[in-house]
Amino acid sequence: MIDGDVPERMQVAAFDEFGGPEVITLRKLPVPEVAADEVLIKVLSAGVGVWDVFERQGVLVPEGTEFPIVPGSDGAGTVVTVGSQVTGIAEGDLVYVSATTRPKGGFYAEYAVAKAEYVAKVPDGVPAEHAGALSTDALTALAGLDALGLPSNAWLLIFGASGGQGHLAVQLAKRQGLNVIAVASGPDGVALVTRLGADVSLDGHGDTAELLARIRDSAPDGVAGILAMAGGETLDRLTEALADGGAVAFAHGVRPEPSERPGVQVRAYDGVSNPRQLQRLNELIEAGPFVVHVAEKFPLGKVREAHQRLETSYLGKLLLTIA
């Protein structure tokens, strides 16, 4: 059932074949119907991430999806219709979503339907628009911290700390009482992670031997864990700073994967989206000021440019603005 104030058709960005950014076009599609366990959201913004590229290329397509495909697994907006079985969410609520399955389309659209279990109210302190770029990277960062399972006051090295997942991980790690060494990208990246609370901020573009020396100066007994948002020779060298029994956790998709070596545990992880994890995430976010750093915003009509921007260097997140 669709509320009477909701139009029958909506503008979306979608594609009918897999390929490059050029396959995405604007068109009008029907607003999806809402099942008993779903909500309909008037979309305010949608995050733009590498997983959208994988979907566009046909590499990572959600089960049940058919052409035309409306991408966008991250989004935020206002609830306009609530299914009959949904509790805890009401019309008018500002929410954000991690839509791991979305056979009725994603958030590159004026309206989107989501299962209520993947919907959470926008946490206090986060602008609703920026919340559109929050869920996937924040939940993945939280899963990475869980994979390491470090005790409070332990030293954590975050490699790739100024990226989409990394800058959120810095803040979540500090909320868990960890001491954070953030290896960021360039002077601007160092400035960002410093502002977000990193105890030690280092430029990953610097000399690797000097980086390693500074890490050892900060954590002379070694770091207990490394959270890797990127791979490569620099990361493999920095694993020398791990304490005995230390671990490297990396998100699936990081290439090259961190190298195994004696005395170092290497663990892969994926983001987890469920009501309990969303609740945990919101509790951590609301513990203090929290920033979703948006490098650049694009209107829906500039979606191709947004996907081209994904192929360049930037800090934090990219965002499509819909409303």
Structural class: alpha/beta
**Total beta strands:** 15
Task: Report how far apart the termini are.
Answer: 22 Å
The low-pLDDT segments are none
- Secondary-structure element order, as H and E? EEEHEEEEHHEHEHEHEHEEHEHE
Describe, in plain words, how this protein is organized in 3D:
This protein is of the alpha/beta class and 323 residues long. It has nine helices and 15 strands. It has two domains: 9-134 and 292-321, Quinone Oxidoreductase, Chain A, domain 1, CATH 3.90.180.10; 150-269, Rossmann fold, CATH 3.40.50.720. Strands 3, 4, 5, 6, 7, 14 and 15 form a seven-stranded mixed sheet that branches. Strands 10-9-8-11-12-13 form a six-stranded parallel sheet, sandwiched between helices. It is globular and about 60 Å long. Pfam families: ADH_N (PF08240), ADH_zinc_N (PF00107).
In short:
The two termini are 22 Å apart. By secondary structure, this protein is of the alpha/beta class. The strands form three sheets. Strands 3, 4, 5, 6, 7, 14 and 15 form a seven-stranded mixed β-sheet that branches. It has a six-stranded parallel β-sheet with strand order 10-9-8-11-12-13, with helices on both faces. Strands 1-2 form a two-stranded antiparallel sheet.
Question: How are the SSEs ordered, and which strands pair?
Answer:
Layout: E1 9-14, E2 25-30, E3 38-48, H1 50-56, E4 74-82, E5 94-98, E6 111-115, E7 119-121, H2 128-131, H3 135-148, E8 155-159, H4 164-175, E9 179-184, H5 186-195, E10 200-203, H6 208-218, E11 223-228, H7 233-238, E12 242-251, E13 265-269, H8 275-285, E14 294-299, H9 303-309, E15 317-321
Parallel strand pairs: 8-9, 8-11, 9-10, 11-12, 12-13, 14-15
Antiparallel strand pairs: 1-2, 3-4, 3-6, 3-15, 4-5, 5-7
Helix pairs in contact: 3-4
